């Protein structure tokens, strides 16, 4: 296998190596300046709730995602995603409401830097065995330094909880492309 090594002026190097298989492979680099993304530095994470959480009536409450499933770049902590690579991120969240009185206005939202950024809403008419699921999805630009995302839940009902389970109260995201 042959390789090409490009050394930096002061430190570091890049090695391009052909795979040990027959055929021709092409790597096309963009004509833009900036960072070329490789799989090793494209942040992705997934977390779920592992305990039941009480939700205040008529108030937005931060959702606690206590079980980190994976976090490829160590950007998820304390139920907050703070990517260190600037770019566009697909963000998804689901909360599973239970208890309370129905029908009621129940929602979840993506908060960016402490304020509502993207709001999902629905009107739950009956309580099922799995509760009432709400979700929100959004493609968000993140600056890679100070921007952060959290998920909040809202209900107009008293006595509402969020189920702490690994299949319905979820928060995940991944980088789609660099800035």
Protein described:
- The chain is mostly beta strands.
- The protein has no helices and 15 strands.
- It has strands at residues 3-7, 13-17, 44-48, 53-54, 61-62, 67-71, 76-77, 80-81, 87-99, 104-112, 115-124, 132-142, 149-155, 160-162, 170-178.
- The protein has a single domain (38-178), classed as Jelly Rolls (Sandwich), CATH 2.60.120.
- Strand 1 and strand 2 (13-17) form a beta hairpin.
- The protein is elongated.
- Strands 3, 4, 6, 9, 12, 14 and 15 form a 7-stranded antiparallel sheet that branches.
Structure characteristics:
179 residues; mainly beta; Jelly Rolls; seven-stranded antiparallel sheet; 0% helix; 50% strand
What oligomerization state is this entry in? single chain
CATH class, please? Answer: Mainly Beta
Biggest sheet statistics: 7 strands, antiparallel
Helix content: under 10%
What is the annotated CATH architecture? Sandwich
The first-to-last residue Cα distance is: 34 Å
Overall morphology:
elongated
Mean pLDDT: 85
Structural class given helices, strands, pairing?
A: mainly beta
Over the alpha carbons, how many angstroms does the gyration radius reach?
Answer: 21 Å
Low confidence ranges: none
Q: What count of helical segments does DSSP give?
A: 0
Can you tell me the CATH topology? Jelly Rolls
Q: What's the number of structural domains?
A: 1
Query: Which sequence of SSEs, written as H and E, runs from N to C?
Result: EEEEEEEEEEEEEEE
For the secondary structure, the number of strands is 15
β content, as a range?
A: over 45%
């Amino acid at each position: 296998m042959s390789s090409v090594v490009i050394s930096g002026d002061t430190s570091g190097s890049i090695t391009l190596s052909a795979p040990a298989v027959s055929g021709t492979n092409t790597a096309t680099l963009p004509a833009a300046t900036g960072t070329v993304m490789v799989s090793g530095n494209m942040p992705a994470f997934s977390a779920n709730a592992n305990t039941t959480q009480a939700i205040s009536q008529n108030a937005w409450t931060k959702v606690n995602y206590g079980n980190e499933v994976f976090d490829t770049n160590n950007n998820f902590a304390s139920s907050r995603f703070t990517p260190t690579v600037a770019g566009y991120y697909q963000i998804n969240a689901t909360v599973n409401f239970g208890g309370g009185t129905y029908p009621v206005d129940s929602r979840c939202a993506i908060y960016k830097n402490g304020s509502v950024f993207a709001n999902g809403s629905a009107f739950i008419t009956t309580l099922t065995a799995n509760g009432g699921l709400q979700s929100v999805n959004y493609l968000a630009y993140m600056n890679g330094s100070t921007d952060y995302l959290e998920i909040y839940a809202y209900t107009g009902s008293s006595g509402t909880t969020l189920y702490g389970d690994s299949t319905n109260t979820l928060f995940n995201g991944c980088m789609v492309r660099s800035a």
